[in-house]
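Study this pair:
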Amino acid sequence: MGEKEKILIKSSTGNLHLIRDFVEKKAAELGIDSKVISQIIISVDEACTNVIKHTHKYNDTNEIEVETVYKNKEFAVIIRYAGEAFDPTKKETPDMKEYFKKFKVGGLGIPIMKKSMDKIEFKHTKPNKNSLTLIKVI
């Protein structure tokens, strides 16, 4: 499967299940191990939740496009959306001992993505177009 497949949804947490189902189906079609699929899905879910919450500020007139691509033993999920640029690859991973000492809640989505995926790439183009690619080597 070298082809690309995509889904376009309204930017709403109520639609996250559509993205999860889409990505899971595409990964399963490739015979990817279920544990690896779970890592991919949690990363995609975290990334899309961040877009919905922080970039689109729960405004469901915005849209998120999710594309899957399998090429050269890499399964990539490309998340495209409009809005202000935020590059998660530049976000520092928190000191987990300090994090839990302070009883913090939230803010672990990006560390989860970094731990679960093999590569993360971010691109911002004018005007306000963003592309976040999550890559898992299979």
